[in-house]
Amino acid sequence: MKRQLIVGLTFALAAMTAQAQPREPKQEVNPVVHDALMDHGDGHLMDMQGGMIMGQNKDTLPGGCDEIAENKEITVKAGRKYAKPGFIFGFDQNQWKVKPCTRLTVNFINEDNVRHQWMMHGLPKYIYQKGMFHLEITGPAKITGTLILPPNDKTFLVHCDIAQHMEKGMKAELVSGKGTGDLPSIPGLTPHALPDSYNVNAPEPVPSTVLAEQVDVAAAALKAKGGDSESAPGAAAKGAKATADKAPSSGGSWLSGMTILGIAIGVFGAPHLWQRIRARSKGDDLASLVDATVDLLKEWLGMALDLAMQLYHRYKK
């Protein structure tokens, strides 16, 4: 009992002593500021620590801008902590709105230990080489650059162009004036242009290599039985017919599997076919649409004939 009492008092005294000692304040890691970059001309600035600015323009007005509409400064933070659900990286904001002809200063802060970019596309190439403004740093770090927006209403793409970072969440838009509509697949802002499908119950497609192996096996079996005089495609056709003959009859019902498949192809394929025809047509008149349809059918027929010839020459050997 005395031993337990002594141990308990010892732990209590140690806890009181630790609580009485003042705790040192948590030190925040200040990002490295890249503010001494070398000028390589044409708005291209760079330093040896991984900082880079491309397309900086503080003074040259784009055509149509008589004066600077306003001076605006924004701060953009990038890192894992700003990733939207389902993504890995992100910006703290995914949309910024400014006036046309604005002189915009961007403070870009990278809070990750990897390289990130704030890259903006669609600018006039007679001022901005390759039509873009670009900030890039390896963090934790901060870099600041300035550009002057053109006079037109437009929605500009902003993203990180490091491999797959945009797909992992670093995509945004800058709206100048009224903009030209929201861009697709902006995390937290607009839906995906091509949504992913994760249907685990969907049947797995049969790989083309497996189909080719099955055909090779059938061809080898045919030759082993002395069927050299008959082509493999012909044998395959006969085999398919025999399989169909052995299959249970649907009783002559019009609602057969082939009918349902045909209806599905018609319903889902017709809009795509119409888009292809409209894209090829030189106008919306009937003659142009007919010519486009004929050209498309010729192309598909040629592809089918090429495939048939390839199969024929392959199994003729």
Care to describe what's here?
This protein is α+β, with helices and mostly antiparallel strands and 317 residues long. It has 2 domains: 32-176, Immunoglobulin-like; 208-242 and 256-316, no CATH class. The chain is built from 5 helices and 12 strands. It has helices at residues 2-20, 208-224, 232-246, 257-280, 286-316, and strands at 32-34, 38-39, 45-46, 52-54, 71-78, 95-98, 103-110, 115-121, 132-138, 141-148, 154-159, 171-176. The strands form 2 sheets. An 8-stranded mixed β-sheet has the order 2-3-4-9-8-11-12-6, with no helix packed on it. Strands 1-10-7-5 form a 4-stranded mixed β-sheet, with no helix packed on it. A hairpin with a 5-residue loop joins strand 3 and strand 4. The protein is elongated and about 80 Å long. The model is unreliable at 23-27, 228-233 and 239-254 (pLDDT under 50).
**Radius of gyration computed on alpha carbons:** 33 Å
Q: Roughly how much helix do the residues carry, as a percent range?
A: 25-40%
How many domains would you count in the coordinates?
A: 2
Shape: elongated
SSE series = HEEEEEEEEEEEEHHHH
Q: Which spans of ≥5 residues are poorly predicted at pLDDT below 50?
A: 23-27, 228-233, 239-254
- Derived from helix and strand composition plus strand pairing, the structural class reads alpha+beta
Q: Which homologous superfamily in CATH is the superfamily of the largest domain?
A: Cupredoxins -  blue copper proteins
